[in-house]
Amino acid sequence: MSTVAPLAGMPTVDVAVQSAIDAIDDSFLVLDADDRLVAFNAGALRAFPHLEPELVAGARFQELIRRDAEVLHERGMIDDVERAVADRMRRHALPNSSYESRQPDGRWFRSEDRPMAGGGRVVITRDITDERRHAEEAARYTKLLRGTLENISQGLCAFDAAYRLMTWNAQLFELLDLPHTFAQVGTPMIDMIRFLARRGDLGPGDVGELTEEVYRMSTQTRGTIYERRDTRGRTLEIRLRPLSDGGLVATYSDVTDRHKVLTALRESEERYALAAAGANDGLWDWNLGSNRIFFSDRWKEMLGFAADEISDGAEEWFSRIHPEDVQRVTAQIDAHLSGAAANFESEHRVRHFDDSYRWMLVRGLAVRDSDGNAYRIAGSMTDITERKRSEEQAIHDALHDSLTSLANRTLFLERVRQALARQRRTPSAQFAVIYLDLDRFKVVNESLGHVHGDDLIIAAARRLEQNLKFGDTVARLGGDEFAIMLEDVRDKEDATGLSDMLQKALSTPFMLGGKEVFTTASMGIAHSAENYVRPEDILRDAELAMYRAKELGKARSVAFDPAMRGTTVTPLDVETDLRRALERHEMVLNYQPIVSLSDGRIRGFEALARWHHAERGDIPPSEFIPLAEETGMIVELGQWVLRNACAQMVEWNRDFTDQGPFEISVNLSGRQFTQLDLVRMVTNSLEGTGLQANCLKLEITESALMENAQRSAQMLRHLKELDIKVCVDDFGTGYSSLSYLHTFPIDTLKIDKSFVQDMGRNRHNLEIVRTIALLAQNLRLDVIAEGVETPEQLAQLRAIGCGYAQGFLFSRPLTTENVRRLLAENRVW
């Protein structure tokens, strides 16, 4: 013990004793009757190193406590120094006290105050840090274990070697509906069993005998699993497991739902057996020991055999399985018999009596002995031939174009993907992709109708197929666009030569509806030497090259050049700009005069939309009108044309009353003509501009009218009720509709310029014009001939009685300013 300056009455301590006390881990503080420090050992310095300056003879114990509290407060371990000192001194004043505290360095100590016989006190302090840590870990483990027990779905309890209750969870009392008076450590297991027996949970019988029987089974078990039903109709699964040092653990599970499922499964299997027989499925039962198979009569009948024409040998089945399927079927059976697969199910082909193969769905389930070895397998056979055909057709349809039966975009891109993979493995295996678009297809489609348009697509597809070598792929991407993959193409020049061959094949006229139809194609070529990674990229570049071919005048092939990616104008570019053209006031109307051939004066105008693009200049109607049709923009564009044309005509009729009133002709596309609100749109334009209805003439193509003749007649009647005039545009180029013509309430026939321009060279065309004019006269209709360019054509038209004409002979389409100048001249032709 470290002895401070001796105080009165303190004996001198032997050095050996002092050394022994200093070696003790515990801290000793000796206080006199005035609560002053008399002596302490080295353990005190180890326990309270922060008090070393204060540990001097005569130090008051309260001051030591205060300094200790101040250090704790400085380190944020306590909030109130005075309260801590008061609490400690209160305990110190007790005859005997024990308390725990935490030191500034994080250690925990337990201090005990004891009075001494001769007066004064001794304070002994012990480091209990490890003890507290172990206690906390034990508490956490106990809490975790208790939480686990309370969260499992089973009820659980454990009994000691004397079969008294040691632990349990709440689920046990809920499942067994036990009173909570049993929820006490030490409850005898036999008392709990007796309670269940009295309530009837253990079944009928004497309570005492049932109690003894269950108690004996439980205490003598080496591991038991059994089920029983309780008085509430539930089925409980009970598992008993002995503990190594005596006692046991019991778990209780509610398996009522599982029993219901198993019962339902058995009933389902019975229903399936009945349904299989009723559905005429074939049944089979294979004895694996004898290798004999029972085949039902229906099984044999499904393959075209009589009941006595097939034996019970296993070869009767396996010898009829398609050679490509037999190995797979055998492996599937082996997998089930070995236990690797829960059941046997196989779709495979089986040879019929007529030597054709039928697709069969065969299912089976093995029966096993107590060791799990299969000794029998039985099942059914269902004919799924039609389903397989439907699936194959669905797969084919998903990868092929419905009109031409060519590959579609999905299949084409997959073929290109495979070709790219081959080229990566074998760099010399190069190929090319051609993007092909039929020129003037829209003209054919509108002139001859969609049926003949489809015929042209089909005929073009066949020609492309006929001119490709084995291994090449041709696909229809949609509309009049095709894609071709040419295998084993050395370079772009080689691909260009092949595309020229395809161009030549397509240039031969097609016979559609008794007419010769000529078409060409614009083709873009992309070669795999550009090191493509994705199939979409090479197709994209071929498409860009195709658009460049169209820009250069169509009917040609162009090989892709990387510079095209920034310069080629695609339909998407045009579509994007078209949607903004009206907002940017890039659209304007030009007007071509329509002249009366009886007096040579202007009687009206045809309104024609023109697009003055801010960057690309004038874009012809042949480019933006078809695109407007496809995107639906034609409806908005048509409304703009109609309203502005009506407004302009009001102005000219007001300013040139001596020559008017003039009529304005506005073209309606097929898509506009099918709009349900067409009549309302026309009415709004007339009312909004103030134009008289009889000054408006709507031009509709023959093909658009005949698309749905009955609906067209109804729409025309609505327009006529408003006093609006209707003109059949491009008459003679579409359907042979003479039988319908008299049913349509129309006013005018416009003869297509293709007939007018060839009248002088082709007598056949002259007769067509003459016939149309005569037909119109008989039906009391006006006739307009368009495309008049020469005085000779004008003379011929007057000679055959044509009423009106328009064309470059009179004037090209004019701006509004130039129309005013023309009207001011008051010309006569």
From TrEMBL:
Highest taxon, organism lineage: Bacteria
One Pfam match: PAS_7
Domain EAL residue range list: 571-827
Domain PAS: 268-340
Protein name (Swiss-Prot/TrEMBL): PAS domain S-box-containing protein/diguanylate cyclase (GGDEF) domain-containing protein
Cross-referenced PROSITE patterns: EAL (PS50883), GGDEF (PS50887), PAC (PS50113), PAS (PS50112)
Residue intervals of the PAC domain: 344-396
CDD domains named in the record: EAL, GGDEF, PAS
Domain GGDEF residues, every copy: 429-562
Species for this entry: Thalassobaculum fulvum
